[in-house]
User: What shape does this take?
Amino acid sequence: MKDSVNRKVFSYSLLDSTQDEAKRLVSKGEQLPFFVIARKQTKGRGRLGRRWVSDEGGVWLTYALKPTENVNLLISNYAAAIVVKRMIEEYGVICSLRWPNDVFVENAKICGIISEAEYFGNELSFLAIGIGLNVENDVSMKKELKRDVDSKEIAERLIRHIEDYFSHVNKNEVIREYLNALDTIGKKIRVKVDDSCIEGIAKGLDDEGLLIIDEGRNEVRLADGELQAA
Ligand code: BTN
Assistant: This one.
């Protein structure tokens, strides 16, 4: 389904998961890039195997795109967080980003992002960036902005921002902007990675976007993990 400016947006009232629908569309031969959006999801997927509650009142969106030298899995994740932050800040509130991909207003997580890479054989075929933005529900933009916001309008706005940002995305700029918005740097943090925990000071991001943690004796670099209260 092409919208008025020729973007491919597949819109549903109900889906299992927009991530899964994006995969089905690609395997049926749909050309990248495209968006999938649903008013409700029955199997919304969060990071680390968690369920993502996706009742009406949010924007549940997947952007499926080809990876490039400027956009790999990690960078796509950061870039999406920047786009969401910029979009929300147009409403006059400041957002912060929590590594690796949560968007906060004050102390409320109002958006979560999951980036998944799909392979055909050994070849990286496409990236599916899933954005779950709480707009009119419990912990949400509406509550933090203290005004009415409409999920449909926010979805359209977000799609425009994503398309614009990703049309000239540059890896180094993404890393720089993401780093500036991170509330994690300079703090003592604990990150759970699989079954182990890494504890130290978050020092910054390296040239590839990996989070640098100073453990005292060692320096560790991470692409993913679960940030816990230190
Ligand atoms: C997180 O755990 O913070 C990430 C949540 C990502 C949820 C979004 S909603 C749209 C897309 N489809 C899914 O099934 N998950 C993502």
Remarks:
- The chain has a mean pLDDT of 93.
- The pocket of biotin is lined by residues 17-19, 41, 44-47, 50, 52, 54, 60-62, 102, 112-114, 130-132 (CB under 6 Å).
